[in-house]
Specification:
Layout (H helix, E strand, L loop, with lengths): L10 H4 L12 E2 L13 H7 L13 H11 L6 E4 L1 H15 L4 E6 L4 H8 L3 E6 L9 H11 L1 E5 L11 H14 L2 E5 L22 E6 L12 E4 L2 H10 L7 H12 L1 H24 L2 E3 L6 E6 L9 H11 L2 E2 L14 E4 L3 H15 L2
Parallel strand pairs: 1-11, 3-4, 3-5, 5-6, 6-7
Antiparallel strand pairs: 2-8, 7-8, 9-10, 10-12
Helix pairs in contact: 3-9, 4-5, 4-8, 6-7, 10-12
The chain binds pyridoxal-5'-phosphate.
Pyridoxal-5'-phosphate binds next to helix 4.
Length: 366
């Protein structure tokens, strides 16, 4: 295992590697959070809700689940509120283990927590590599691996590539899984950033072998508060309820679910920002000679197009150069199949994106 930090968003863990002070002023492109920040009303609402800390939350989180169910067009029985997407991942693995699954396939490169969750519950992990510079899924191999092992984890849009496996391919995987009693777990942590709306919720009406994992911390920029949910068949969600620790989500976070989902203006502003900024940043990075993977999410993965194998070379050097310019990018040392040869950056505000582009331009200049 590499000694690089396993997640983004922790400058104090990365900067000392380069002899920089952990508390240095930094623009953080390493965590994929909405740069609009939390909705403006949130701080006041949290402050006003502090008295709720004196009582236990509703163990069924009925109000929050109904708000999610209404937003998704599902019955509340198919919704479980979780302590971030991270808890949803661990609950999915716990359910698979409970169902007797001993092996799972994970489509790589991807978020490292699927593997950790599986191993935690005694499930052996088989990697399945996305192929080529555009990170395509070999559908036939995926279907075979899913049915052989009993479960397949994939992330859509995928962290760190930003790629989105087409809905028709997902449907075909689900049909194959149904025939062989295999489960498809799809992490949709970044689906709120995808336009037009690509969420797979409607498939839950036809496929009881589908689990959808969601995060609310990315879109609403509240990773410290922790909110997510899990969607599945009523039976699967019922079993997951038995596996989840009681009161896993605190009352303040749970009380925010309905007002967050009701804030359509925030969602519209987010989409307008991303629709403008992602193509702009991608174009600027390409103009600097970088190979950028076309993304459906709020982040971009890139490498040096001029070099076929820059493993251990230019990308780690660029990471260090950026850190010295006060910019934190996400290294890829612990993504299987990338191993440091790529960098990932969040899409941020125009002035911040401009600062990133200028810093890279200074590095690539002779
Ligand atoms: C793909 C993916 N899923 C889930 C999570 C966990 O998010 P949360 O903060 O909601 O636990 C992350 C966090 O980076 C992620 O990248």
């Amino acid at each position: 295992m590499s000694d690089w930090p396993s997640h983004g968003g922790r400058p104090e863990q990365l900067l000392p590697r380069f002899g920089l002070a952990g508390g240095s002023e930094i623009i953080d492109f390493s965590a994929n959070l909405n740069p609009l920040g939390p909705p403006p009303w949130l701080a006041q609402r949290l402050a006003a809700s502090v008295t709720e800390l004196a009582t236990y939350p509703d163990p069924d989180y009925r109000e929050a689940r109904e708000a999610i169910a209404c937003n998704e067009g599902l019955p509340a029985e198919q919704v479980r509120l979780t302590n971030g997407g991270a808890e949803a991942i661990f609950l999915a693995a716990a359910l698979l283990a409970r169902q007797g699954v001993t092996q799972a396939t994970i489509v790589q490169p991807t978020f490292g927590e699927y593997g950790r969750a599986c191993r935690h519950y005694g499930i052996a992990v088989e990697p399945l590599a996305l192929t080529g510079e555009r990170f395509m899924l070999d559908e036939a191999r995926a279907a075979e691996a899913m049915c052989d092992t009993g479960a397949l984890f994939l992330c859509r849009p995928n962290n760190p590539t930003g790629t989105l496996i087409e809905r028709e391919r997902i449907e075909r995987l689900l049909v194959a899984g149904q025939r062989h009693g295999a489960t498809l777990v799809v992490d949709e942590a970044f689906v709120d950033f995808v336009t037009p709306d690509e969420r797979l919720t409607p498939l839950l009406a036809r496929f009881d072998n589908l689990l959808l994992l969601r995060s609310m911390t990315k879109l609403y920029a509240i990773p410290g508060l922790r909110l997510g949910h899990l969607l599945g068949s009523a039976a699967a969600v019922g079993h997951i309820g038995e596996l989840q620790p009681p009161w896993s989500v605190n009352a303040l976070a749970a009380g925010l679910v309905a007002p967050l989902l009701a804030d359509r203006d925030y969602l519209a502003r987010t989409r307008a920002w991303l629709d403008a900024e992602r193509p702009w940043l991608q174009g600027e990075l390409e103009a600097l000679g970088l190979n950028v993977v076309p993304s459906h999410a709020n982040f971009l993965l890139f490498r040096n197009a001029r070099l076929r194998d820059d493993r251990g070379g230019p990308m780690p050097a660029l990471l260090e150069h950026l850190a010295r310019c006060g910019i934190l990018a996400r290294h890829t040392h612990n993504f299987i199949g990338l191993e440091g040869a790529w960098l990932r950056v969040a899409v941020r505000s125009r002035p911040e994106n401009q600062a990133l582009v200028e810093a890279i331009a200074r590095w690539s200049a002779p």
